[in-house]
Amino acid sequence: MMAKNDAWLFQVRITVSPETAATLRADPQRMPPGLRDVLSRHDASLTCQFDAFSDYVNEAERLGPEKYSLYQWTKETIENPEKKARYLQSFTLYVDSEEVYPREIADLLHAELSALTGTSGIERVVKIDSNPANNPQPPKLQ
């Protein structure tokens, strides 16, 4: 287990308006210019959390749910209307196709995207570290 805080990797997530979420999911080329500029500068891309959860469930159902420890929890999450609405508006930033990245990159992304809050359809920006003690953990399997 890593003891030094700087050893953890980070991820940035944004919450966007329902209208912006619909645009980003349907036609990413119509992304608001400010958001596009930040992503381009950092070789970053967005993945809708709802879509990622749906992909996980679909893969599990195709290959056998018993091989996917979070299958039931994820399926219940995307089938819950309130959670579905929330995750449709939540996007994870990938940098160089990586889900987590060093603090310096996350800090830059967080600062630049936070400056866009209230514009470009961005409502909220959060930075999450990979330390399990700081994050909700998936439910324990029975």
Number of strands: 4
Q: What is the element string, with H for helices and E for strands? A: EHHEHHHEHE
Biggest sheet overview: 4 strands, antiparallel
End-to-end separation in angstroms reads: 25 Å
Strand order of the largest sheet: 2-3-1-4
Structural class: alpha+beta
Q: Could you say how many structural domains there are in total? A: 1
Describe the global form: globular
Concise structural overview:
With 142 residues, the protein is of the alpha+beta class. 44% of the residues lie in helices and 18% in strands.
Index terms:
142 residues; four-stranded antiparallel beta sheet; 44% helix; globular
What does this structure look like?
The chain is of the alpha+beta class. The protein has one domain. 44% of the residues lie in helices and 18% in strands. The chain has six helices and four strands, in the order E-H-H-E-H-H-H-E-H-E. It has helices at residues 18-26, 33-41, 49-63, 71-79, 81-88, 103-114, and strands at 10-16, 44-48, 90-95, 122-129. Helix 3 (49-63) crosses helix 4. The model has no long low-confidence stretch (mean pLDDT 90).
